[in-house]
């Protein structure tokens, strides 16, 4: 539907929600691919400021028309009733449009509380899987969240927000080739970040990359190590994560000239673990790696980073069995 916006524009309204770095890249690409002519509003979590304090440039660089920060840090994990009230209040205070005015709603990070507001208002929405291939690992996603936020995880599972089976989820958007479950039904829509980036006009792709990075990167490395934030997810202790990467350094990566790309939520100091390696300081989604170097390395090493599902056309992917390094 058309709506007279508060700035006087008259365009169909579409709404996006994203939580992580990957999801931010994904919704930017989806908007540029499918909704460039619509007025696109983006909701981001307030905690994304830690990674992207420049978030307002999403508007000035014309990647979205409006961006609002949802105050997740101020919503306490109490009773479901209180959470529903808090989410309603948060939305209606920060977004200047009634939720029913949006012609389409796209939710990445659907297990976060914003989805409850859509469900309570009977708003059908599109569901993005949490990361490439994670639709097939919904139980793992639940267990990871439950380890840190059990109330949050319990509510999200009750509303079937890990596997995309809530009845108000209209379509599920995923990378089909990365799934181990059957996604042949028309309910599942295929979306490849790798292909969307390739298909963008070069000028638009450079503009997108410029949001995350000011300059191209120079390296003499032959391979990239993609780290993962196991300790941050409570999948192992910080000491265990350090030990795993130290073992990796003296075995599979012993003679490899390396540059390290940390996961945006990984806070370990890898200079101590890999003193001879280069380290990328900038924070950006790993899916941009094919486009950010003057001369890119040829290989990527990782335990099981989901980013590799969208990098296979540009790098030789070397996946390492994590169990061998986690003892």
Structural features, described:
This protein has 327 residues and is of the alpha/beta class. It has helices at residues 21-34, 57-60, 80-94, 114-120, 138-148, 150-158, 193-199, 202-212, 238-249, 270-273; strands at 2-4, 10-17, 39-45, 66-70, 104-108, 125-128, 169-174, 188-190, 223-226, 258-261, 278-279, 299-302, 316-319. Strand 1 (2-4) and strand 2 (10-17) form a beta hairpin. The mean pLDDT is 91.
Q: Which residue ranges are poorly predicted, with pLDDT under 50 across at least 5 consecutive positions?
A: none
Elements, N to C (H/E): EEHEHEHEHEHHEEHHEHEHEEE
Structural class: alpha/beta
Q: How would a textbook summarize the main sheet?
A: 8 strands, mixed
Number of helices: 10
Q: Would you tell me the overall average pLDDT?
A: 91
Radius of gyration: 20 Å
Number of strands: 13
Q: Which percent bin holds the helix content?
A: 25-40%
Query: What is the overall silhouette?
Result: globular
Key features?
alpha/beta; eight-stranded mixed β-sheet; globular
Topology summary:
Elements: E1 2-4, E2 10-17, H1 21-34, E3 39-45, H2 57-60, E4 66-70, H3 80-94, E5 104-108, H4 114-120, E6 125-128, H5 138-148, H6 150-158, E7 169-174, E8 188-190, H7 193-199, H8 202-212, E9 223-226, H9 238-249, E10 258-261, H10 270-273, E11 278-279, E12 299-302, E13 316-319
Parallel strand pairs: 2-3, 2-5, 3-4, 5-6, 6-7, 7-8, 9-10, 9-12, 10-11, 12-13
Antiparallel strand pairs: 1-2
Helix pairs in contact: 3-4, 5-6
């Amino acid at each position: 539907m058309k709506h007279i916006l508060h700035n006087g524009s008259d365009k169909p309204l579409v709404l996006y929600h994203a939580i992580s770095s990957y999801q931010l890249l994904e919704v930017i690409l989806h908007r540029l691919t499918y909704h460039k002519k619509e007025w696109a509003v983006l909701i981001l979590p307030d905690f994304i400021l830690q990674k992207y304090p420049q978030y307002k440039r999403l508007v000035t660089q014309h990647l979205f028309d409006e961006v609002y920060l949802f105050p997740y840090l101020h919503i306490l994990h109490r009773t479901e009733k209180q959470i529903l009230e808090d989410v309603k209040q948060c939305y209606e205070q920060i977004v200047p449009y009634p939720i029913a005015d949006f012609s389409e709603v796209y939710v990445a990070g659907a297990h976060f509380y914003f989805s409850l507001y859509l469900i309570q208002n009977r708003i059908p929405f599109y569901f993005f899987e949490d990361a490439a291939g994670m639709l097939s690992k919904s139980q793992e996603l639940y267990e990871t969240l439950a380890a840190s936020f059990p109330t949050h995880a319990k509510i999200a599972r009750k509303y079937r927000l890990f596997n995309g089976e809530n009845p108000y989820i209209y379509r599920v958007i995923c990378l089909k080739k990365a799934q181990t479950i059957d996604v042949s039904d028309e309910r599942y829509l295929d979306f490849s970040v790798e292909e969307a980036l390739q298909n963008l006009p070069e000028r638009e792709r450079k503009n997108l990359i410029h949001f995350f990075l000011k300059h191209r990167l120079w390296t003499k490395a032959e391979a990239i190590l993609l780290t993962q934030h196991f300790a941050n997810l409570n999948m192992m202790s910080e000491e265990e994560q350090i030990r795993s990467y130290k073992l990796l350094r003296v075995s599979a990566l012993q003679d490899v000239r390396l540059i390290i790309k940390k996961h945006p939520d990984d806070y370990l100091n890898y200079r101590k673990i890999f003193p001879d390696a280069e380290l990328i300081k900038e924070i950006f989604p790993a899916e941009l790696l094919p486009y950010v170097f003057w001369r890119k390395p040829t290989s990527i090493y990782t335990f099981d980073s989901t980013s590799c599902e969208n990098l296979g056309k540009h790098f030789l992917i070397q996946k390492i069995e994590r169990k061998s390094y986690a003892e």
